Amino acid sequence: MTTYFFADTAVLTGRTLRHVTRSVDTVITTVITPVAMMLMFVYVFGGAIDTGSVPYVNYMLPGILLITVASGISYTAYRLFTDMKGGIFERFQSMPIARSGVLWAHVLTSLVANLISLVIVVGVALLMGFRTGAGLPAWLAVAGILFLFTLALTWLAVIPGLSATSVEGAGAFAYPLVFLPFVSSAFVPTQTMPGPVRAFAEHQPVTSIVNTIRDLFAQRPVGDDIWTALAWCAGTLVAAYVLAMATYRRKVA
After folding, report:
1. How far is the CA of 83 from the CAs of 77, 137, 150, 170, 191, in angstroms?
2. What is the pLDDT of residue 238?
């Protein structure tokens, strides 16, 4: 059964990846938004924001990476919604394949598509002056955190992808996730915020993730932020996975 699951998932992942390659505009759209934000913040607002001796592009890149992921997972919900409305799930149910393979194929496709987007965004940041002396272990740690963050949000995207009643509804859930970094330490130090806003910013998940990635790039000790970041990502992943599978069983299986 396990062998069939992996084989079926691999075949179905190839199918969803082909859909992505045939609509490259989705990847381009996912990349354009964070790159445009990065250009605007660095070249328009960056000079007015005091980040000490840290170049502003270095300071804000972690937040841009999270926005890139949040933008990308909206397309996961869209692709799932399209398959649901197109009757693909029902057709696969009548075939001798692993039932959850279809779902995992969309999740794996999301990871690959977001990886491509993140690489492009980091490449643009390098052209804009981003520099880091971080070694391989630090880069691997950043990659691991982004992987866990992407996986958690992807499973979160599965829920509206399966249950939405319209295309707009399937993708709209990502909007709050895109704007969450703006009320965090992603673009400005939280010390400059009014009391209630600062309290929210310092205790929401994005801030701990941003601070951890920023410290890793700057070769600073990460402190307790990394454990908070991992706890938020892991907790979100578990909750989203449970709810997504429950929704899948109710809607399809």
Report:
1. 10, 39, 21, 12, 46
2. 96
Q: Report the first-to-last Cα separation within the chain, whole angstroms.
A: 17
pLDDT digits 0-9 by tens, 113-152:
899 899 999 999 999 999 998 899 999 999 999 999 999 9
Q: How far apart are CA 16 and CA 49, in angstroms?
A: 42
pLDDT of residue 7: 73
Write down the pTM of the prediction. Answer: 0.90
Q: Are 161 and 64 in contact (CB under 8 A)?
A: no
Token code pair at residue 225: 């932020």
What's the CA gap between 76 and 84, in Å, rounded? Answer: 12
DSSP state of 112: H
Rounded to an integer, what distance in angstroms lies between the CA atom of residue 29 and that of residue 24?
Answer: 9
Percent of the chain with pLDDT over 90: 49
Do 233 and 149 form a contact (C-beta atoms < 8 A)? yes
Distance CA 158, CA 153 (A): 9
Closest by Cα among 118, 115, 133 to 62: 118
- The pLDDT tens digits for 62-86 are 999 999 999 888 888 888 888 777 7
Count of residues making up the chain: 253
Alpha helices in the chain (DSSP H): 2-22, 24-40, 56-86, 88-93, 101-127, 136-163, 167-172, 174-179, 195-203, 205-217, 225-251
